[in-house]
Amino acid sequence: MTDETPEPFDPEPFDEAEYRRRQRSRANLMALLLGALAILFFAITIAKMQIFQ
């Protein structure tokens, strides 16, 4: 019986352009969600002001 150790997993080389693309995509998504949340809060505030007048 031979005692061969399997070769370790060789990870793919780091692709900085792909990393930056993903980072930019996440940042755009977070900006969109934050903007939508701000608009939602603004709309709720305006609606509450209309009810109490």
What's the short story on this structure?
This protein has one helix at 16-51. The protein has 53 residues and is mainly alpha-helical. The mean pLDDT is 87.
Q: Which residue ranges are poorly predicted, with pLDDT under 50 across at least 5 consecutive positions?
A: none
The ordered string of helix (H) and strand (E) elements is H
The structure class reads: mainly alpha
Cα distance spanning the termini: 88 Å
Gross morphology is: rod-shaped
Described by strand count, sense and barrel closure, the largest sheet is: none
Proportion in β-strands: under 5%
Rg calculated over all Cα atoms: 25 Å
Strand tally: 0
Task: Give me the number of helical elements.
Answer: 1
- Please give the share of residues in helix: 55-70%
Integer average pLDDT: 87
Could you characterize the architecture of this molecule?
The protein has 53 residues and is an all-alpha fold. It has one helix spanning 16-51. It has one helix and no strands. The model has no long low-confidence stretch (mean pLDDT 87). The radius of gyration is 25 Å and the shape is rod-shaped. The longest helix is centred in the middle third of the chain and has 36 residues, at 16-51.
